[in-house]
Amino acid sequence: MRPANIVTSVADVLAGIAIAGVFTQPGALSMQGYLPQILLLCFSTACLYGGGIVYNDVFDADLDKIERPERAIPSGIITVKQASTLGTVLLLAGIVSAFFCNSFSEIIAAAIAFFALLYNKSSKHHPFLGPLNMGFCRGLNLMLGISIIPSLLSTWYPLAIVPIIYIFCITMISRGEVHGGSKRNLYIGAGLYAIVAGTIIYFGSRNHTLLLTALFVIPFLYMIFTPLLKAIKEPIGRNIGGAVKAGVISLILMDAAWAATFSTISVALVIACLLPISMWLSRIFAVT
């Protein structure tokens, strides 16, 4: 289920909620305010991400016998049928919990589940559609957070392009994780990373929160570019895997930057505090 990654999905939703302005509304965190919806959406995204990852292993079971025999299914810890049941329960739980928030959240959650299954079943094998498909999942995840106030979806849906580009980049880079990759893809990834950071900085400037935004964008850039430059220098599987792992976990800092841009420094710091949790989990459980 990739627990370290699930933490990043919760950060996505919290960033979306911050963009919606919930955390700056008086009494927003009281039980009479938005706290139940916040908890429902965080639970929803955790289930959706976990279910999608479980199905990733279900569809890759035969390939993992060769490339990753230590994983749960090929090692015999769990059967394909048991994993499929778990994945289905998690995806349905994600959709149902979003339904209890509002109908727009339910639709977005169902779309995330659909694109996760589409990626795992077929599109992952396409060099362009696979990364794009995975990007859609993360873009919709940000929208899932914003959907806590449905009327704002029409205002902020263009922001979904940022996580789409970012995850497109990570997924593209990850194709060289097992057998090594090409420097061309890594250079393209570096360019896409720069576009993502530049977009966040633009909104920070527009919202007059540039300094606060930079507090999180700078460590975000350091965390993603340090292993990426190492992989560019020596594009072997181990280095590319490190770049992918850093890219996934660094999503938390990107989400914190969104919160600093649209909400308050305290909310951004709360999201950033998820980073050490994700990093700790990444030492115990696989990230990729």
TrEMBL record:
InterPro entries named among the record's database cross-references: Prenyltransferase_related, UbiA_prenyltransferase, UbiA_sf
Cellular component GO terms held in the UniProt record: membrane
Transmembrane segments: 6-23, 35-55, 89-119, 155-174, 186-204, 210-228, 240-259, 265-286
CDD domains the record matches: PT_UbiA_1
MF annotations from Gene Ontology: transferase activity, transferring alkyl or aryl (other than methyl) groups
Pfam entry (one): UbiA
Primary location class: membrane
Keyword Magnesium on entry: no
Record's subcellular location: Membrane
Membrane topology designation: Multi-pass membrane protein
Keywords: Cell membrane, Membrane, Transmembrane, Transmembrane helix
Protein name (database record): UbiA-like protein EboC
Organism from which the protein derives: Mucilaginibacter myungsuensis
Lineage: Bacteria, Pseudomonadati, Bacteroidota, Sphingobacteriia, Sphingobacteriales
Gene that encodes it: eboC
